[in-house]
Amino acid sequence: MRRLFFSALTILLLCSSLQFLSGQQATAPAPGEKKRFSYDQVFGGFMPGRGGRGDGILGRLPEVTGWADEENYLEVRVDPADKQRKVFAVNAVNGSARIYRDYSEIQKNLPAGFNAQSAAATTPDLSRFIFNRDNDLYSMITRHSASAA
Question: Is this structure's pTM higher than 0.85?
Answer without folding.
Answer: no
